[in-house]
């Protein structure tokens, strides 16, 4: 049956359209920098926010009531949810999905039953994937929601919880492989601490590394070739999350000699919670060769929690796509809308309106970023700005021929050449002009 | 001549004293954990905040007028400032000082003259060191104040500025060696960016690493055995500083294979600007073996800039000393008061009152931390909390015998054992009791 | 039956006690400034955090399982919860409680049934109050949790929701009266906006004022003489809450001519979310004569949401009690622990340990504040600091005899007299000494 | 002589222009909603940031060296600066300017000389105003920079400083009148506190009100008909500024019965420092009838100090102009660029580039806002959203016929009607479309 009967497939109608249920900027087949928009953007639906978030918040209960949840048993609901999800993705033209193990199937009475339930739902998903051609961008484990993970999973003080988490991740990697997932994500929802007064950070971080190494070994053993990704977040739910930001994760991966096995999944709102811009985090990943995938959403800079809003800020989408294009595109990654409709946007239609808002914002961002790169606006400016490293003493520095003595001799003899303006305001005005004028 | 004629040497009078110009808790010769307080705390005076900060802020001019600045030429002022500084340290019982090159001597018309001036003042300082027994904890370079560093020093887009910075650091290391400095600090005041629109972060970070390698080579060449330290800060003056926090610096050091040459200088206010607690940053350094030294100050959690207040929060000083003692003490490092009197505390007496406030707060913190460790309050709690890693499946994990298959088998067979409470509130109450009751 | 069988009544054992289940500082009968501690502190239990919070957070489900919830029907649970709550208050020596209508009784199928259920539970509570002598500090309405309040209650865009909220408040005032509540609190959980794009702030604020006026009229009509209180909070759950902070609430009350009918209920964590210190908000209330009551908790300055932690920071409790004593004490108000045990403190014993931590922290704060006032430490300093307004031109200003012309004449003739230091560091050191040395 | 010889008058060249020194969107004579852009936007130059900010920051000295400062005596510099400023405004097509007394003339040896100097420069300014037709939007007093104001001006603990501030404001109002200033602004740069330990907030706020009343009286006496404006800011330079935000200022004005004499000058960056959006603060002023004027700039949401950047964010300029147009336009107020070029934008050309960036951003914002209003996009949505207050029980509420009893009767009988979605995501997408498509 159809769950979104009143909604037709969302089509591209162009920037002049007044139809709320149409794309204004996302034109899947349009070519941008040698690929279709569809190929460049690799949009993904987040199973959790789209199909299991019901509008609860810490101060209020569910506002959303979905027809597909209107069934008797939880497994039946889970199956209907699969059908609804694929209908939604088809109609919204979303080519990928991302999921936690616990999003797709409810926990059973024990791990064995839980795993059996996963298998049952995975079969349904595979059918739908086959029917629609929609693919799995990544899978992951929810090892933070169940009370057993109250003190963490891989960093729990309880060794049996570590074991349970390992078992859960094992299964999640298996089903991600089964579904052809192109990546597998680790987000350490409770991997952190509430207070240092009771925490052995050294032991916990060592254990985290052990868990990740086991995951690498197991993936190799079963031939899972998806990319492993770590998703940084600085806080929430725990007071301090170990995977604070891109730099912290890279420090961890280098320390435990895991850098060749992992890339990062950068979420916009996690960047802002860490007091970085989204672009900053993407840039840090790009120059370190670890940009894996992107959780496309938006935070509210005035609020201190993870609002996971649909991304509608054109500056953010433009500058994100700018870094992504500079990095050579998303390759195996994608733009996963780890975004939820506002609690007050509780109608089913809002799901479509929100995805349209986000997809259009990124489509526009892609086009602006591509134009900026084609015109080499910022690239030429930067090349000129750093030109002094291409000749003379600068070239000596770049090529490793300088030391303190030669540089001192140079400075004593020559002083410094004049600096020139950084031209920030002009560059911001040009960015505005490109955003407003790129067609 | 004496500059602080009205002030006598500050003496320990005990907790009942009502004399503002006496220590209530800092009793230099008192033994704590096998050393004197003086040896444990290794207090240092910051030359800049104490002797060159005049009360300016972005909205107002100097409020402080010091008698030692009342001389005709800038070099005469610089010399008198040395005398005043050592008189101050003697009277305040501060055994170490820290300095930037530009704190102690004014820049000359060119680098040669500037360096000659440094030599002239260094000679004066050496005399005073000999006379008083006061030592140099660390030296550093101010490569951020002069307009030539507007785009950075080691990360400048202007190669001649890189060269100039290298020359300046070379000289600063030389004079730090000359003064017997036990450490040398790198704080990247302008090593960061204002906008990504004009910045090549990859080139800048590579250059930063080149500069640090040259410093290592030069130190080795001249036989400087002081410890190199990097001081993290996330922002201010630049929008983004590359050395954001301890984790970011460790990622950088590991990437460029510099981790064995550098430790960290952790500043409390820089921690809070990075949205970490002071204790967190010390803890991260401790468990990675890179705790070098400490900039003892305090920020205002409600303000978003580096207020560099004198540290008077007993929780912070206790938990900082707790981490330091766990790390085996300060070794070559110290507690440098990178703290400035408030702009409204503009009288000379305030300098003493402020140092007393900070030294007493750390002295009390030391005693409380020592008692907590002696009683193993938190250590026993943690040992018990993580005991499951000492036996059975936990021991298998710890000792590397577990993998995903064995852990899954364990989880399927055993589930998880019950978690126990983290007891955060009880531990906080115990901390209060120790703070209030430790004598 | 007894729900806390293993816990004996918590007794004062003094600062040397190592018994976690004893008070170290809270000695109910001890006299401080002419009253017993019990009278000065007027501690209250929050029904919601203590008896209905189960450890859920946005990323995880309940961690707490309480024996009194182990009943078949929701009304039975509600009744057993009353018994457990009073047993808890008796054992923890808490003389007051605070409640929302929805804390004490579950909603029924319609408003009539819901109200009937309230009546049924209120009768049980009254019996327990009679049996124990425990009193009601305040009641309030939960007009934010149910999905009908998704767009607000008094500020809803849906007039029938406004009507429903009014009906709910009417009933809540009635039962607060029935229970002898000394105050009634308004916290506008959803009275704010998510986005200005869809919000008529003027209409919403006018409506809010209308609702409050109706409440005043109704209270007068039924002879409810409890104090009406508004509790400010700047954000969460909504992006912007209208009752942002004390100043904003006072602006609102003055605009709508409601200032004589309302006082404020200041919550520490709401202050910090508004980027104010707890003391600041209490001070602003004090000098405007609107300090009504206090929600005693603590936030984490590094986190951007309402953590509602048990207050264990002695600086905060001391400076809060300082303002409260300056204001003449709590009068009808109290110290309500709007505090919840951490999600990881899920054992029943943690409830006691947490209340002990908070009560001891405030007891100590009370004693330190009283000593500071008795010794007039800060008061004398301030008197001297502002002495210039007691004579000469300052007195002319104070007494309204000065104008721009006379002041200009004075300034032209006299310039300004020297400023003296604000002595912040010395005052902070004195505060430390009083905290550490007051017995 | 001409100071900006290389710069021609900045002309509108349209959105396709690649000339950095041309307007792309600001077309002064173009009609928008019945007025020219010039009349709608009323742009003003800030004398301080544009002509006295030299690039200093707390960690570095001046980076900007201006030809007009290249004179021997400070009064000569002040005069040349006037000429440079008017040349700048002419070339940049800025019709208004704003100034502090201390921006235009250096302080003399005493107040009398200082005032005489002001008169001398005012005469030069008047000539230039006559020559160019450029007008004064507002004047103000710098009563925060001089060390005499270390403890505040109107809220100083030193009564002679209060007198001096009064004299200074008197003179500043006089010269503002002389220059035909349409407004006079009060920004309380040091009107706040550093620590509550030494502060009598009640006395300070009472004094502040006294000062403002004297100002009102004096304005009336001399017939100054300009609008008095208060500019809120929450912190910086002081830890806490009394004029925190719009709501706090309104509370103050109502308390002291000054609301009819003052309006507000809303600065974007001060809004964000107070954790409000720019639009929020404008909205609060609009619905309270106190929107006076606007300081057009932009903060960095990741930084905690007043960066005063040139406003280039189209969302901010659109939503600001939206509120301004809803309020009936700027009337006597204007858009004053309280914005400074970045320290690294130190070339004279950057001044023009920055103003162009800001003026274009607001011009575009004006056009988008006007189109949104003409199409009644959000207004129709809101009208429909609140329609329930136009009939039935909602109308009873609106028109004052409802009370708790009638509303309870309604709720018991009718329950609530269904809520509808707030449609935030759709509205954000429409805003994007209007920004991108409005020509
Ligand atoms: Co995510
Ligand atoms: Co998120
Ligand atoms: Co420092
Ligand atoms: Co600092
Ligand atoms: Co509360
Ligand atoms: Co709260
Ligand atoms: Co301003
Ligand atoms: Co500003």
UniProtKB/TrEMBL annotation, chains A, B, C, D:
Naming one, the record's GO cellular component terms include:
cytoplasm
* UniProt entry tagged with the keyword Metal-binding: yes
The record's catalysed reaction(s) read: alpha-D-xylose = alpha-D-xylulofuranose
Q: What is its EC number?
A: 5.3.1.5
Query: In this protein, which residues make up the domain named Xylose isomerase-like TIM barrel?
Result: 119-274
Protein localization: Cytoplasm
Q: How is the cofactor bound?
A: Binds 2 magnesium ions per subunit.
Keywords for this protein: Carbohydrate metabolism, Cytoplasm, Isomerase, Magnesium, Metal-binding, Xylose metabolism
PROSITE patterns from the UniProt entry: XYLOSE_ISOMERASE
For this chain's UniProt record, which GO biological process terms are given?
D-xylose metabolic process
The record lists Mg(2+) 2 as bound by 267, 270, 306, 308
Main subcellular localisation: cytoplasm
InterPro entries, per database record: Xyl_isomerase-like_sf, Xyl_isomerase-like_TIM-brl, Xylose_isom_bac, Xylose_isomerase
Gene Ontology terms for molecular function: magnesium ion binding; xylose isomerase activity
List cofactor names only. Mg(2+)
Binding of Mg(2+) 1 occurs at 231, 267, 295, 338
Instruction: Give the residues annotated as active site.
Output: 100, 103
Top EC class for this record: isomerase
The cross-references to SUPFAM superfamilies, in alphabetical order and at most eight, read: Xylose isomerase-like
Family named by the database record: Belongs to the xylose isomerase family.
Subunit info? Homotetramer.
Protein name, per record: Xylose isomerase
Instruction: Tell me which species this is from.
Output: Anaerocolumna xylanovorans DSM 12503
What gene codes for this chain? xylA
